[in-house]
Each structure stands twice: as structure tokens, then as C-alpha cells.
Amino acid sequence: MNYKIAVIKGDGIGPEIVDEAVKVLNKVGEVYGHTFAYIEALAGGAAIDKTGVPLPQETLDVCRKSNALLFGAVGGPKWDSLPSEIRPEKGLLSLRKELNLYTNIRPAIMFDELKDTCPLRPDIVEGGLDVVILRELTGGIYFGKKFTEGDYACDCMEYSKYEIERIAHQAFKIAQTRDKRVTSVDKSNVLETSRLWRKTVEETAKKYPDVKLNHMYVDNAAMQLVTNPKQFDVIVTENMFGDILSDEASMITGSIGMLPSASLGDNNFGMYEPIHGSAPDIAGQGKANPIATIISVSMMLKYTLNLPTEAQSIENAVKKTLKDGYRTMDIAKKGEKAITTQEIGKIITENIQ
After folding, report:
1. Same domain for 290 and 170
2. 247 and 126 share a domain?
3. 65-79, 100-114, 259-273: range with highest mean pLDDT
4. How many domains is the chain partitioned into structurally?
5. Does 187 qualify as catalytic in the annotation?
6. Domain region containing 313
């Protein structure tokens, strides 16, 4: 099969980690008889430098003509002084909104080989950790009305019933393929949007009688993730809460450099990216961990291209690489030698079977 993949490398370490993911994807194509054609486009700081805007129309056109989008990271100190409407991060938010990518899937899986890097007590994560966080991606406070007047600023959190329903459906469907448990996280004791969220999720749950639903306030969920993370199967929550909780979950697994993500809409198109940022302080030094981006490619094969066997081959290659003792800087224990971004990418590629 032939597939068109839009590629936005972005800023900072983005180009380095995306390059390694592309090498892995090419090896999968070679082994399984697929062809991947890559169309590069600009977003974020790189786009601002070249076009003056964080998301050119040309980039949207490229994405809409592709089967999937592989994304690196955006942002950096170079653009921090720009107005919010033309900052690099605005390009990423607009990309999600324009492509209607409202479901962000962030799996937090702790590999057995990395259990020593988990900051929690061994008994808390004994037997492994496998949680999926679904973050609503195109609503909430990031997209609500906002303004600043002198010494006063306002950001409005907004949600419609429709926006909540569609992410809830995704959560219950994914739970049906797992342990059939959904935890909906909100702040309904304080926020009107959370009250609508809870009511809507409960109504949606009636269509999935085989899935058990429970609710949790976001502050309690943050505590429970570090005291009893194995109680969770699928977590579904709004945009800002999901952003914070998934970053917390990433550190439980050992490193934010290990967590991939998929952003999906109503069709098969998806954007696949690591959840970490552009890390400009280590850009170009070969210190970045490309594994989150590589596993994001595995999710692309699974969710968008419907190639589960090929997806599993990437996960197996990552596990073998870790089992053989190879580590990047962020996951190396004290005294362990870390290898470069390019070296670990090469080893994972060679391990594709």
C-alpha cells in the first residue's frame, strides 16, 4: 500500500526526533511492503521565521491531502516575546482546531525495563502500569474567549454538550477494548462546565452498559495518579485538566520522552506527536529521546492506517532495544552510559522484524 504522510518537524529537537521516527517508518515499509511518501510543511517558530505566521494555509492544505500527520514540537525562547496570536504554540492549537482533532489519546505505559526510573515506590507500580488518558483537545479554556484590559485578564472555559458527548463516546469505545473502566475527571463542585461535563458523560454511559463509569475531581485524580495509579484504565477529561494529568502520568512512567500521543477527529485522519515540548536547550546535541515520537508512529499505523501488525513490530523493537540496555540521557540511571538520539533510533530501526 502507498500512504501520504504530512511531516511537520517544527522547532528545537523536533527535526531530530522526527527524522528517527521516519527512519523507523521506512523500515516498516521495507519489511511489510508499504510505501510512505512524505510531504514536509511548516508550523510554529519555523513557519513564523519563513512566512510571518505560525500556521500557513499551505500547511493545512498539505495535511488535508494526506493520510496522517507526523508532528515534532514547536516553540522556544526566540519567539517568547511575540503577541499570543502569532506565537508558535498558536500554530499547534490552530492545527488541532482547523483539522477538528478533538480526541487526544495519550497512553501512559511503564515498560518493565524502565521500572527503576519510576519515582514511585516499587510496590505502587508492581506488575506494570497501563493507563490511557483521553484529553478533549479543541474546546475549554484554551479556545474560549480571552482578553486583557490593563491590570485585568480573562480566559473563559467553554463547552457544549456536543463537544463533551463526542469525546465521551471515544473514551467508552476504547474502554471496551481494554478493561472496561472509565474515570471521568472534572471539577463539578466548582465549575459550571464541569457540571455539564459530568451530566453529559453519565448520559453517554447509558449506551455502554458493559463499561463501568466513575467520576473524580481533578485534584483528587492528580493525587491518585501518584498514590494508586493502577486503579485507572481509561481517563477522560477536558482540555486543560488533560494537559496537566497526562504530563504527570508521563513522569510516573519514567520520562516525558517516552509518551506518544494521537489526535483524532471523526474520520481516520490523525496527528501523531510526542507529548513533550521542543526542549531548545538540548536541540542539535543528540540528547533528545526519540522513543515517544517513534511510538507515536506505531499509533499512526494502528489508529489511522489500520496496520496493527506493523504497529506491534515497532513496539516490539522499542521493547527489545530497552531490554538490551540502550538508554538516552533522560532514562539512563546514574553511572549508565547514554547513547545519542541517532544511535537509539538506528538500533530501534534495526530491531524491526
Report:
1. no
2. yes
3. 65-79
4. 2
5. yes
6. 1-101+266-353
> pLDDT at position 266, please?
85
> Given the C-alpha cell 527489545, which residue does it identify?
320
Domain for residue 259, yes or no? no
- Within this chain, do residues 49 and 90 fall inside the same structural domain, yes or no? yes
- 165, 239, 238: which is closest to 208 by C-alpha? 165
Tell me: do 271 and 203 sit in the same domain: no
Given the residues 247, 319, 320, 346, the one annotated as active site: 247
Q: Which of 179, 219, 266, 281 is catalytic?
A: 219
Catalytic annotation present for 9: no
> Do both 202 and 179 map to the same domain?
yes
Strand order in the sheet with 212-217: 35-40, 2-10, 68-73, 270-274, 260-264, 103-110, 129-136, 234-237, 181-186, 212-217
Residue 179: active-site member: no
> Long-range contacts of range 113-120, CB-CB < 8 Å, 24 or more positions apart?
113/319, 113/322, 113/323, 114/253, 114/254, 114/255, 114/258, 114/322, 114/331, 115/254, 116/333, 117/254, 117/255, 117/331, 117/333, 118/252, 118/253, 118/254, 119/251, 119/252, 120/226, 120/229, 120/252
Q: Which residue is catalytic, options 11, 186, 233, 243? A: 243
**Domain-located, residue 299:** yes
* Most confident by average pLDDT, 121-135, 178-192, 264-278, 334-348: 178-192
Catalytic hit among 9, 23, 90, 187? 187
Which of 204, 230, 252 is the C-terminal boundary of a domain?
Answer: 252
243 given a catalytic annotation: yes
Reply yes or no on whether 123 is catalytic. no
Give the model's pLDDT for residue 221.
98
Residues 234 and 319 in one domain: no
pLDDT at residue 38, rounded to an integer: 98
Phi, psi of 326 (to 5 degrees): -80, 135
Q: Of the listed 3, 102, 142, 326, which one is catalytic?
A: 142
Each residue of 170-191: pLDDT tens digit?
Answer: 999 999 999 999 999 999 999 9
Considering the domain architecture, whether residues 278 and 189 belong to the same structural domain is answered as no
